Amino acid sequence: QYLLPRQRTVTLLSSAHIPLSGRNPMLQEALGIRPHILVLNKMDLADPRRQPVSTGAGLAPGHRAAVTALLCVSLQIVPLVAKLVGNSPRYHRAESTEYSILVIGVPNVGKSSLINSLRRLHLKKGKATAVGGEPGITKAVLTRIQVCEKPLMYLVDTPGVLPPKLGDVETGMKLALCGAIRDHLVGEDIMADYLLYALNKRQQFGYVRRYGLAEACDNIELVLRRVALAQGRMQKVKVLTGTGNVNVTMLNYPAAAYEFLRDFRAGRLGRVTLD
Fold first, then answer.
1. What was the pLDDT predicted at 93?
2. What pLDDT, on a 0 to 100 scale, did the predictor assign at position 62?
3. Alpha carbon 70 to chain centroid, angstroms
4. Contacts of 92 (CB under 8 A, 6+ apart)
5. What crossing angle do the helices spanning 253-265 and 188-201 adopt, rounded to 10°?
6. What's the confidence (pLDDT) of residue 126?
């Protein structure tokens, strides 16, 4: 709320895995009539059959918004911002010719990566903000970062923001699967169980081929067993016997659950849209 009045437009970033669940309704309310762009990140990992639905869904009526994808965002976003601001009677009257854009979204959706990618394309410079595969890398609102010379454009990186209360458990599970919530807060075993349910529900059976299963199954223990065997996830456990301690090699199910989640996030189980 503090930063919005100082920005001429806003880039709202969401994951194409969760184009609806990945949007914070409180952020959308705060935008009001301010021109904004919805960018769906990680389109290459989402189900192409569901992309036309996801790009047009969930926008509040009357909002001036455009939708693009990160695959071509480097080419589209700069002229799109200039067009939106120029066509807006509220914002084109300012004397300043520079554009200041706020980048917002839930945690770990790729806000910092978007800024770095625009800098590489338009300024031929390296990354200006840290990125990582876990939520919480950006911990504070950063200073303005220049991403283009003509027109003069600055982006402001912000920490990811989740609503204080999620609408339902399933929305929370989808956010966790996409890395918006830290794994240990939910539990890798619970997330793996929900992921298996979600894949079967959408008839996405890439895990059957990847882990050498005979057929699709809804038993997470059997799937994690195959993951542990395929990935070599073993652990040595000390067992107390009548003759002393014995080291036994067992399957490491928590590590297998983590590998299952990693494979999904990297697209190795197929292209999946959870919404």
1. 53
2. 42
3. 12
4. 85, 86
5. 50
6. 63
